[in-house]
Amino acid sequence: MPNSPRHTPAIAPPPLLLKWQTWTLGLAVMLVPFFLPIPMVLRRHPIISPLGDQLHVVLLAGIALLLYWRGPLTGRLWTTALVAAIIGGAIEFVQIPFGRNAHYMDFVLDLVGIGLVVGFVLWRGHGQKVGLWLVLALLLVPPSRMYHVPFVASAAYRGQGNFPVIADLEGPRDHWLWGSNRAMLEIVKIPDGKDGPSQVVRLTASPPAHWPGVETRRFPHDWSAYETLLLDVRLVTGHAETQRFSIRIDDFVGRKDETWISTPFSATSDWQTFRFPLVQRQVTDGNSLQERTFDRKDVDRILFYLPRPEGRAVLEIDNLRLE
To answer: What does the pLDDT read at residue 4?
Structure first.
């Protein structure tokens, strides 16, 4: 950390940025992407979407550098870092009316970008080794958040090839497509699946969680040609002979207005095939039906959960498909 504030940048800006016109244009170019709606095909792409998230690092680093090089904050490294962080936090909320969402991890990536600038200036401008270590440490953050991308992409592309089978769970990387929602999630091989040896989703849930479950999102989202979701389920362990569970399906609009469609079922120790109807379903907010029909052209998420389980229960789920 410098002993006194410097009003001249410790690292000189490129000559092009000495002109106010190019500096202002550069700042605008860095800010504009935060307010552009992201096309759905890119938002859901298994590779482009996570890569796009990392742009927060680049854009906030660019904004921090521009503020450090010109304007009232010129040469004031720590004040620049603070103002850039405030800008990054404000962007998360200001962009909401433009069809974007506020995300905590986006702000964390903003801080990574700002931290890289701070570290670089300390290292190259002030000759402080702590800056080098800061840069090296922060450069590890994007790769640590991206290591799963090849596995998710491989499983997602396999799922697209199998459609209208949503999940047969036989692929070696299919487990990357599933997530836990206050329940224990396992993808396990069993010898006694509905049609013989199989790989299944195993959901283990128990109190005090009220709505424990598992979910998946990475599948083709246009279900308009299909009327029913089918799946095979059995109860492996439970406090009673039957176990209530529910399936909830969200369309993309439902992510914002907190609406969905759901159907309750009861599982037993025998494999059963359950049918979840999709046609002309009115969405609910959990309390009442809403005046909107579920959009089968834009399905976003499938969630399996136990509503207020009375004891520990283990369900196995397999062969999600549409007809």
So the answer is: 46
